[in-house]
Amino acid sequence: MIDFIELRDGLCGVPFLITTTRDPRAEQVREARSLAERTGQTYVERSVGSLTRLYEAARHAGPSGAKGILVVHRDEYTVWLPEGLTFRYHPGMAVHRIKSLAQGGHDPMISAMELGPGERVLDCTAGLCSDALVASFAVGPEGAVQAVESSLPVALTVAKGLRTYECERKDVTAPMRRIRLVAARSDEVLRELPDGAFDVVYFDPMFHEPVRESTGIAPLRYLADPSPVSAALLTEAARVARRSVVIKDRTDGPWAHDPRITRFVGGRKRRIGYAVISGAERSRLVEGA
Fold it and tell me: Contact 41/16 with Cβ under 8 angstroms?
């Protein structure tokens, strides 16, 4: 039943509870139970009204240590957090970025990646897959985008959304469906891949100083893996990338001024940019220099 995502062991963002909406259909209950069994999480029947009451009841019933509750809806998953936030899938600004590209506009990330039709991209920090979605549009049906997410509740929620979310624009929905999302640690995925398996390897690590206006991703900060891009991870990424490694960062962030960066794509009016490691710098990383 849960055939829309590849699951690996050793993920973060657990444990959590799994339940359904109120008055669920039989297939929702089956899916929630199957999901709990496959992921090793705890299924809780929706026998009480609010999620707050359910969460408190579960806490008093035993030391579950649950971080939140994944709710199986009829056509999506959401993650309820006791902090009063709810995480759900939405393509966000990717819709506007794709519209701009379709009209011949410019996207800094695509420029940094130098993407063209038929190319392959590995997104090591999937999150909501907004960047992966824009990349999927850019490489087209003949290309491929694989996204890796190490937070299990995030991966499940987003993977479900990629398969069920309907957008009015077909040029958004089609590339959305083509993204392959893997619930795994990016270092493990990279180690398994051969040299030059992807044209571009991409990272969008959590900023130490978040953009305050980005309230739409606030729930993600509670669930995402905050680990930085380590030297070992960067070396593996450089080996797997045929052309370049691209890292998203603030224009005043550490990657914008790292000596290994070949170029940084981002203007004065943008607080966010893309650090690119390619050419000789990428080769030196692979060789361990």
Answer: yes
* pLDDT (average), residues 125-152: 96
Helix (H, G, I), strand (E, B) or coil at 148: strand
Non-local (6+) Cβ contacts of 126 within 8 A are: 132, 147, 148, 149, 154, 155, 158, 181
What is the pTM for the complete model shown? 0.93
261: left (phi over 0), alpha (psi -120 to 50) or beta: beta
Question: Half-sphere exposure of residue 65, counting CA atoms within 13 Å on the CB side?
Answer: 4
Domain boundary residue, one of 58, 86, 114: 86
> What tens digit of pLDDT does each residue of 87-105 get?
999 999 999 999 999 999 9
Question: N- to C-terminal Cα distance for the chain?
Answer: 47
Domain that holds residue 219: 94-287
Whether 212 has a pLDDT exceeding 50, the answer reads no
